[in-house]
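User: Show me an example of a complex going from sequences to structure tokens.

Assistant: Sure. Here are the input components:
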Amino acid sequence: MRAVVLREALVAARRPALVGAAIVGAALLALFPLAWGVRGIPTLGGISLYDQQFRLEWILALVLLPWTAARVMATERADDFVGLSALTAIQPSRLLLARLLATAIALVAVIAGALPVVISAQQMSAVAASRLVADQVALLTFALPAAIITVWWMQLTTDRLLGWLGAAATTVIVVTLARLSVATMNQAAIALATISVGAAAILLAKADVWWRYLSERRA
Amino acid sequence: MITITGLTMTFEHRTALAGVDLSIERGGGVAVSGPDREGRTTLMQLLATLIRPTSGTIVIGGLDAVTEVYRVRRLVAYAGPTRILPNRLRVDEYLRFVAGARHQPSATADIAADLVGLNRSAPIEALADEARGQLTLAAAIASGAAVLLLDRPFDGLDTVSRDRVCEWLVAARQNGTTLIVSDNAHVAGLCDRSVTLCDGCIVESAAHAPSDQTVPPRELVGA
């Protein structure tokens, strides 16, 4: 299992998309106060720069995380996944669990890459550090559902583009639904993480059956 | 080590195997030959638990290969026409990953790469199709599995690498590794028995003299 997690993490770390997403995310957040000044966008009713930037951070997370996950994860799916299981003598569920963990860690790295910018905004807006911690923990927690949704999609389709688009659309829908169901975005993130653990459990439980044998076409 | 009884495999429009019976003891070696598309690869894939038989039983190491697929996979390693996705890994990283997953020391991976003549630091993306075939063979060697299923393992190997691999396989058999080689080349020195598959049935079975360490490697496999 350790070897598989290391391999998945190595594959993710080698993809330029990982560093690219972290840089784009941090750069756009950094450019936000430069573009709008420290008071932020006037139409947002005078809320602090930190709050405005936090909204932008969520929007970026919704766009960037599924794309990053789809780009960085190892490419075996369907029959190739069966072959990987036979080669390593590891059950598909364990291979997928390793992939989920590695992808979630990669997404956490993307979110964490923007922390210096976010902390600057928090300092400029004189927002309590506890609030910053709570917001960022919620956002980091969101890496888990984003990874699980994308892994689900990437296993179901053989086309990476379709997998990404499906994952992105699903992520936006579930985040919207979660946000409508609870009071704050932070609560929505926690609720999503909880639900996504259930979705991951279903995927892992089915994996050993779905990817046990090669398809007849491949055989 | 391996007992195959009444093994049948039917695809949508054709019967690949029609009632194959075969028994191989631990440390045994069987060469499977026959015309292309007559069931050799199907037999290897069935033994590797990559496909499910239509009927019949396969028992490997006392385990039923249909009901205990994942336990059987720990015993077998298959080198054949399997796609290897590069994922930006190098040859040594890939082989160490396989060895690590199979709880083998990483040195096994380096030995396997050297045996088949692969440049350890080469990125997999840069490998030609032939070299990727060598990589699947190296992965099977690095796995340390008790049963090696080698489907046309010598394709793409130069003479020197082929001799090295043959020497290693002979030694592995003497240490108890069971070997099944699907190849039309003469592999009598590697295996103590050969079977010929035609129309999905074993049409010929012949025993060979026990492999002799004094046989020069290049006489083990010849065109």
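The lines above are the inputs; the final block is the predicted structure for all two components together. Chain B touches chain A through 32 residues (CB under 8 Å).
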